[in-house]
Amino acid sequence: MTNIIHITDKDNVAVAVAPIAKGTEVEIAGFGSVRAAEDIPQGHKMAVTDIHANDEIIKYGYSIGHATEDIAQGSWVHTHNMKTNLSGEVEYTYHPDVKELEAIPPRTFNGYLREDGRAGVRNELWIIPTVGCVNNIAERLVADNQDLVQGSIDGLYTFTHPYGCSQTGHDHAQTRKLLAALAHHPNAGGVLVLSLGCENLTHEQFLEELGPYDEKRVKFLTCQEVSDEFAEGRRLLEELAGNAGKYQREPISVEKLVVGMKCGGSDGLSGLTANPTVGRFSDLMVAMGGTTILTEVPEMFGAEGMLMNRCRTQEVFDKACGMLNGFKDYFISHNEVVYDNPSPGNKEGGITTLEDKSCGCVQKGGTAPISDVLDYAEPVKEKGLNMLYGPGNDLVSATDLTAAGCAIILFTTGRGTPFGAPAPTLKISSNSQIFEKKQKWIDFNAGGVATGEETLDEAGHRLLDLVIATASGQKARNEENGFRQIAIFKDGVTL
Q1: CA atoms of 456 and 62, how far apart (whole Å)
Q2: What is the pLDDT of residues 109-159, one digit of tens each?
Q3: How far apart are CA 217 and CA 210, in angstroms?
Q4: CATH no. of 124-248
Q5: What are phi and psi of 359, to 5 degrees?
Q6: Which of 181, 220, 328, 449 is buried deepest, with most CB atoms within 10 A?
Q7: Shortest CA distance to 401 belongs to which of 422, 428, 429?
Q8: Which of 113, 184, 107 shows the shortest CA–CA distance to 152?
Q9: Domain 4-83 class?
Q10: Do the Cβ atoms of 372 and 320 come closer than 8 Å?
Q11: What is the CA 325 to chain-centroid distance, rounded?
């Protein structure tokens, strides 16, 4: 077992796979034997050569910041002696480096084929409140009607939120867009849209946002218009269950599967194990004709060089530029620091700067060309690897991925997290310790990559097996725990 990883021969730091005690000798190819000048925590960086003040700190073959003081070989490199290089907007130039993946025969999963040609991995009944005022009604309807969950119906759930009224402009529009997108999700065999009746997200607005829909699959209930909303809700849910129960699992090519990718509670091993494992999976999916979506725009800052030139066309590149700089404008317009990241937990786990975090984060995108760039909650249209406008916040970005059409979400973590999106949310640990500690949260352990127990390619294929099993009905940990919720991206005043 190696206790340190030197990612590329360009790097002047290496990452501790396990804690390294002061005085320990480690072998680094090209640098020989390096003695740890101090204790190096797991996931943290050690200088493999002398680094002078203002020199670039190189990891993944890219700069992740600069030294703020002289750093001797073998020293711990972290927030006390380095900082970010990032500031403000960046002017990007397109230098295409698009490398097509070699096609491989697609595998199949047992899912639910919808009339619009999309594939779901669950056949659930969803209650979607258009306003927070009816949250408790939605929750009671779910509790009182569990007897409808039978046959091929996998569950009855609601996704409560505090919005849909007292919002204006763009903020109001985002709520409307997100909720309508969820109503179209292929994992829902039936949807009850639940309104109060006086909110500013009106029934007419929702219908306009929803567009064409199957009246057997989507029903509406405005509580102020009926004398007994629970009786009427029961009647509508029975109709939805009768229609949804007609769907049965059948073999479907992964060409119709859409999988979202994000990370949270990252540590210094995330970019070496869990994230590149997801990247291997993503490349396998794309090579089979499937679709993956990468989000968390602020966690692309500083790693744009790994992504931008993989855009298939100038048009896609321009959309990517607009997405990145548009998100920076969002920060600036709120008088916030663009690069106020990573989080305290990230830093404790070994991530120092946003470039450090981002270079690890974008490993989830693999090597495939980027087919399209999507706006917030915009349904995916192009097969292959897509990028989606959204924040780093776990609940908001996972909801965003669900709204874009992801049937399953892959969530890598080095610290552990229990939450789930409306879609099955598979947790992938970057280290074996958190997997062993939180087995009721974590679905897949990528920690063996760090210890040499398996290669990234082997882990990527094993993850593909898990995704296909989950798509075919095997429950994710968040589903077993009953953890699923939404969070809407808010960017405005509350009246």
Answers
A1: 20
A2: 999 999 999 999 999 999 999 999 999 999 999 999 999 999 999 999 999
A3: 13
A4: 3.40.1400
A5: -60, -30
A6: 449
A7: 422
A8: 113
A9: mainly beta
A10: no
A11: 20
